[in-house]
Predict the structure.
Amino acid sequence: MYKRCSALKNDYEFRRAYGRGRNAVSAGLVVYCLKKKNSGVRVGITTGKKVGNAVLRNRARRIIREAVRLCEHDIRGNWDIVLVARTRTPFLKTQDVHRELRRSLTGMGIITEGQEQK
């Protein structure tokens, strides 16, 4: 049974990923990834006030969380991943965000081509 991704909780973990990690930008989200030694895969989601009111921010978080759930079994290694919602994220379909997330993670080498689903 695959263990689910852990969550990033502390501010310094997010700041470390922003400062030292690699990033990829797409229309729906920004992905920051930082290679770690032994923490497993940890994911943090950020939605700022620019995304909209609380309803839109929560919708963006739900969409991103589902996209992570769909591709988390393909992520191997020890990574801290921070996903930042953009202003159009709440208006995108989950499939679109999933496709963007998978493309970003593949581009950064976190998901290899053999593991990528079409």
In short: The longest strand covers residues 29-35.
